[in-house]
Amino acid sequence: MVLEDSPSLERVETEHDTAPVVGPTPTGDQVPPPQARLPRLARHSITLSDGQQVGLAVCGRGVPLVLVHGFTAEGMLYAQTLSRLVSMGFKVVAIDTAGHGGTLGLPTGGSSMEAYTRLLSRVVDELGIRRAVFAGHSMGGRLVTELAATEPERAIAVVLIDAIVGDTWDRMVNLYRLWPPLFMLTGAALVADTLSTVPLFGDPRQARKLARLLIPTLAGHVRRPWRLTGPAVSILRSRSSGWMLDGLARHRVPLFVIHGSLDFAVPMATARSAAKRGHGDLVVVEGATHSWLLKDPEALPAVMFELMKGRLGTARLKAILEGGVDPNGATIDDIEGVFFDPGSLVAELTPNGTWEDTEELHVPPRYHWSVARRAG
Asked: pTM score, two decimals?
């Protein structure tokens, strides 16, 4: 369907489910009422002004939270987690990178990470997002770090989730260049980690939900495996990430580095170095592997909720005040007016409707974590 007044935009929505997407099935008093509904992401395909087709998913109202997925993944894989972030006052926008999900590969073949970052910047521009909290998982963490380092005025804060930035990762990439099969082994480990999410659940209902998200992604890779060549080559050719982290520190962009303690594909040491160079807080998720946020959709929202009590919440409040709006008594329209262009495309794409997002719809996260806050 084509939206009025948006001749370049083609929008395709997925069918909405009638049952709430909750975490592992609650028991006893935790069972939600039948009519309760969690917010849902609406999936779209848009065409940018330069003809590039991009897939994305949107939900909620409030301060924009732009999330970029990891290598071989796509935004909708994180749907269960993202729907929970809406209740914190975020408009969640999950963008598929080139060659993933609903986004076509780059015309140049995507031979550098910088090209993927430039595409991300164009998407944010054309959606009408002025400023946002940028979050990225794995490869997506690299992209949001570079975007925030080159355009710090756009970033309210940066949240890195098992991201491929930091001194340790840069040294690993140098080894991959010397012996590319090492990179293939790391890629295989990442795919295996993602696939392991479904069997880990003792809850068959939750396993079915996650499988429903994984199967379309895997089917797309089977049909068009060559699409992943560009991102893989770009990772191998990527330059040092140190200058990006130094830039975040220099421009005082609030940084939060969240990492699984058992992530062997992207070692814990790279998260420590990223937090140190970027002057960020480090969150260690105990016993978590690379795809922990897929294995437990309750964990990242719980971590974010804790961070919102500290520097992340302060950064969001400061951004609203800098936009000339007093958060006390401000309407949701007032707040969105700070961060979105008038008549923004992302507003057109946001699904209407109401939802109930109450505590009884959730169960405690499986993981525990610790937070090491930056000095000063």
From this structure: 0.84
